[in-house]
């Protein structure tokens, strides 16, 4: 049951990511896009580092945790960090 839910989450995340990138590439690009891209990747890096620290703490206290969950957390933080980072910085700039 848990692995089936994890599979659906992974498939949903990949579909959302590719749909977002498809429409993102069709958007009109201007000079702000480079700044938005740099800020987004900075946010993504910080988010991924925070997720890795939380996973390390969880693995210390819950060593019996399945290995798929840390991998899912890192992948989701990268993908959703990029999506929400671009949305946030486009509204901000």
Question: Which descriptors would you attach to this protein?
Answer:
single chain, mainly alpha, flat, 93 residues
Number of strands: 0
State the secondary-structure class. Answer: mainly alpha
Number of separate helices: 3
- Percent of residues in beta strands? under 5%
Q: Fraction of residues in helices?
A: over 70%
Compute the average pLDDT. Answer: 89
Q: In whole angstroms, how far apart are the ends?
A: 43 Å
Global morphology: flat
**Uncertain regions spanning at least 5 consecutive residues:** none
Number of domains: 1
What Rg do the Cα atoms give? 16 Å
Helix/strand order, N-terminal first? HHH
Biggest sheet architecture? none
What does this structure look like?
The protein has 93 residues and is mainly α. It has one domain (2-92). Helix content is 86%, strand content 0%. The chain contains three helices and no strands. The longest helix has 30 residues, at 32-61. The chain is flat and about 50 Å long. It starts with a helix and ends with a helix. The mean pLDDT is 89.
């Amino acid at each position: 049951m848990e692995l089936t839910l994890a599979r659906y989450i992974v498939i949903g995340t990949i579909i959302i990511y590719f749909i977002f990138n498809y429409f993102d590439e069709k958007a009109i690009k201007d000079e702000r896009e480079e700044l938005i891209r740099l800020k987004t990747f900075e946010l993504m890096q910080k988010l991924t580092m925070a997720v890795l620290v939380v996973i390390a703490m969880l693995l210390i206290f819950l060593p019996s945790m399945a290995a798929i969950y840390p991998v899912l957390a890192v992948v989701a933080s990268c993908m959703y960090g990029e999506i929400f980072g671009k949305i946030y910085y486009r509204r901000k700039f």
